[in-house]
Specification:
Elements: H1 2-48, E1 54-55, E2 66-70, E3 75-77, E4 80-81, H2 83-97, E5 103-107, H3 117-127, E6 135-138, H4 144-153, E7 159-165, H5 166-178, E8 182-188, H6 194-218, H7 258-292, H8 295-303, H9 310-313, H10 316-349, H11 360-377
Helix pairs in contact: 1-6, 4-5, 5-6, 7-10, 8-10
Length: about 375
């Protein structure tokens, strides 16, 4: 009996736990569903708000240099034309002929060899009278997001006209606005097909939710990028480089700080001292050469006129030669006076003009001559005849 009661209490407790867990799970699911519904409604409303930037009339449509024609399949079924494709081609052609756009960027899917939306759009546009050189093809417009983002990243468009049906233009303008592109939409007509209308609207509901997620949460980019492509005479961007185009600042020069000034002054002082020492050495060398050179050499220098002008006499070598010449002249005059005195003395002595070197008188005379030579050798300027 007790076991049965215990079993019944356990069953009730377990059942109550399951009930609480189920209730919590259902509550969580309900919160998620409601959150998704609110998010979906806000996403749809946010994208639908761009309807105010779409136009139905060509006259009220503002001018943009390039019109982005969004691609779709030209055929709905084998042998059945797609009314959405035909209406978009007609709208793009009318904008071009009304001079509301100058170029048409046909962007579509080309992932299979047998399916090429840009090529089919080009053929159709040429049939309406649009010149081929005014049509630019984008083969990587796999999705609307790819077409819009590649228009800015690859074809370098900062503003454009989006050409498609109204619901499609709203989504494209939402992507363009998030990507910083100034864009307006021109609405092509929608075909009178109820089944196609409902099918497209059902698909558009999920496309808008995904679009908001791609832009706000996932930051999705296009499947393919590429090298820049210019439309018309637009300039291509300059490749990036680390080299500056022009000098951005003045050329750096050493500053005249205290260390630089002190070092410069020291170098100038050393240079002046070296110049003074070299000049003194040159003067001494010139004086020594003039003291040891014969009179004829000193006279030859001055006779040649190498140190005649005042400018030449300021040179150290000319000053040395001048001093040497003065010394030699004084020594010569003194020697001549001494010779004249000896001659007069000899005449006064009469017969004793000749002295025998071997005699006593001759020996004494030689000693006198030797003494006079010794005294002459110790004179200040030397003997020029030695």
């Amino acid at each position: 009996m007790e076991n049965n009661q215990r079993y019944d209490s356990d069953q009730k407790f377990f059942s109550s736990d399951i009930s609480r867990f189920t209730a919590a799970l259902m509550y969580l699911v309900a919160v998620i569903v409601i959150s998704l519904m609110i998010f979906s409604i806000l996403a749809i409303c946010r994208i639908s708000s761009y309807a105010f930037r779409t136009y139905d009339s060509i006259d009220s449509m503002p001018y943009h240099r390039v019109g982005l024609l969004l691609g779709t399949s030209p055929m709905r079924a084998p042998g059945v034309p797609n009314g959405y494709f035909t209406a978009r081609i007609d709208a793009a052609s009318k904008l071009y002929h009304a001079h509301k756009i100058d170029y048409i960027l046909a962007s579509g899917d080309n992932r299979a060899l047998s399916y090429n939306e840009p090529r089919e759009m080009r053929r159709a546009l040429i049939k309406t009278g649009v010149p081929p050189e005014r049509i630019v093809l984008d083969y990587a417009g796999i999705r609307t997001l790819d077409s819009v983002k590649r228009a800015a990243a690859v074809f370098m468009l900062k503003d454009m006209t989006v050409i498609s049906q109204g619901f499609h233009n709203e989504r494209a303008l939402f992507i363009a606005d998030a990507d910083g592109i100034i864009a307006d939409g021109f609405n092509a007509k929608e075909p009178d097909d109820t089944f196609a209308y409902l099918k497209v609207r059902f698909r558009e509901f999920f496309a808008r939710i995904r679009c908001v997620l791609d832009v706000y949460l996932l930051d999705t980019g296009p499947h393919f990028y590429g090298e820049p492509v210019k439309i018309g005479n637009i300039a291509l961007p300059v490749p990036l480089t680390n080299k500056p185009v022009m000098r951005t600042s003045k050329e750096k020069k050493p500053g005249d700080n205290a260390k630089t000034l002190a070092k410069t002054a020291e170098q100038e002082t050393e240079a002046q001292e070296d110049a003074t020492i070299n000049a003194q050495k040159q003067v001494l060398s010139t004086q020594q050469q003039s003291d040891s050179a014969p009179e004829s050499l000193s006279g030859e220098v001055f006779d040649k006129g190498q140190c005649d002008s005042e400018k030449d006499m300021s040179r150290p070598d000319c000053q040395g030669f001048a001093q040497s010449g003065n010394v030699s002249k004084s020594a010569e005059d003194e020697a001549q006076r001494e010779a004249a005195s000896n001659a007069a003395k000899s005449l006064n002595e009469g017969e004793n003009t000749y002295i025998d070197p071997q005699g006593d008188i001759g020996a004494g005379w030689q000693n006198k001559i030797q003494t006079e030579k010794t005294n002459t050798h110790h004179r200040k300027f030397g003997d020029p005849w030695d």
